[in-house]
Every structure is written in structure tokens, then in C-alpha cells.
Design a protein that fits this description.
about 230 residues; alpha/beta; Rossmann fold; 6-stranded mixed beta sheet; 4-stranded antiparallel beta sheet; binds adenosine-5'-triphosphate; binds magnesium ion
Length: about 230
Amino acid sequence: MERIRVESVSYSYQNKYQTVEAVKEVTCSFESGKMYVITGESGSGKSTFLSLLAGLDCPKSGRIVVDGEDLSRIDRDAYRREKVAVIYQAFHLFPLLTALENVMYPLEIQGMQRREAKAHAAEYLREVGIAEEKAVKYPRMMSGGEQQRTAVARAMASGGRIVLADEPTGNLDTENEEKIVELLASLAHEKDFTVIMVTHNRQIADRADVRLVMKDGRMTETAMETSGQ
Ligand SMILES: Nc1ncnc2c1ncn2[C@@H]1O[C@H](COP(=O)(O)OP(=O)(O)OP(=O)(O)O)[C@@H](O)[C@H]1O
Ligand SMILES: [Mg+2]
């Protein structure tokens, strides 16, 4: 099922000295149940594109439609809170909340009672391999891999089931990298999430259901070279 449709979207950064056209007339769509990977050279517009999907910036032209609604016409704060979860390279957990509380947060926003949110959050953390003893830790007391797995658990808890990940494994060793990609793939394939991930890593790109490449602001879909799955 189609969740996100991007129609001829362009975005440029403007400052006193220059205009940088970071995203140029990109048209594509994203379905639930699939993991998409976007690759491309540094500066090709990948992060900018994700920030448009995340509702952090608005296209200068074109439009983004999510679940049939034009992003520019809906409450974007609510969209960011309820529809999309974003995972960054540098772990963006709330520093003053424990792992458990970080994962409870989106659930409580969705209106879940604290007790119930706690039980669900603990279950999500278990699924990503963070046992109950670890769940009471603050992010600064956790390893990078643990923090990123917590971020995935928090994404699982987000009601909208759209996950945008910008080089989520950039700071991790191979073992943790593998685990995170596995988790994100299973979110798509087993829980019907739409996962869109930017990566420089070829092995990760090979795990995608659909591979997209950005070049100089433009997006192309590439045929899969190997039948990895
Ligand atoms: N805040 C900004 N102001 C002006 N130009 C910007 C800004 N952010 C990004 N750019 C420019 O927009 C273009 C796309 O940047 P973007 O960060 O989207 O690339 P990227 O593909 O994510 O690169 P990387 O792989 O290095 O993360 C680049 O030319 C960059 O210099
Ligand atoms: Mg980037």
C-alpha cells in the first residue's frame, strides 16, 4: 500500500551569497512493508530529502502526500509527533529520560496510560535486545549500539509506522550495524512499516527492497544487481 507520494519536489537553500538547489524535481513513492535505501555521493541531497519527508522543511515546489494528505496542508507538528520516527547517525535520544522512558514517550503521546506504555515499551526494548535491567539506564550510560537499538525501539512505538533513518549505522561497528539493519528490515517485512534509510554502506544497500540513488539533487531508482533476499 502506498504511504508516501513525492510529486516533483524541489528544495533549495538560500543565503546571502548563493542558492543551492539540493533537491530537484524528485518524484517517487514509498509503500508499506518495504525497506528503501537511498545512496549517493556526499552533498547529493539525501539528508535534505529526508528532512522534507520528515516535515522539518517544506518543498519550495511540488508536494508530498502522506496517506492521501498533502503535507503542506496538515499540522506538521502533529505529523512529526505521530506519523514519522526519525533515526539519526548521532543518537538522538532524550538525554534526561531513561531508555524505557524514551520508548514510552511516543506511546504516552498517543494517549496510552503510563502503566500500559511501560509494559509496551519494555516489550519493544526486549525485541531489540535490551533487557529490563538495561532499560533503566540513561542514554549516556549506554553503548552506541544500545542507544541506537533504543532509538529503533522508540521508532517501533511510534504510531505512524514510517521510519526515516539517516545513516543510522554510521557510528556503529559491523556487528551492531548488522543488528540495526536486521531490525529495520523486520519492521518493514513483519510489521508493515515503511522504512527509508540513507546509507553509504553497500552491504546495507543490498538488503533493501528498493534501492534509490541521488545524484546532484535528482533521484533515480536502480535495478537490484543481486537478488539478496
Ligand atoms: N543549511 C544549509 N545551507 C546551505 N546549503 C546546505 C545546507 N544544508 C545542506 N546544504 C547543501 O545542500 C546540498 C545537499 O546536502 P545534503 O546534506 O542533503 O547532502 P547529503 O547527500 O546528505 O550528503 P552527505 O552524504 O554528506 O550527508 C549540498 O550541496 C549542501 O552543501
Ligand atoms: Mg547527509
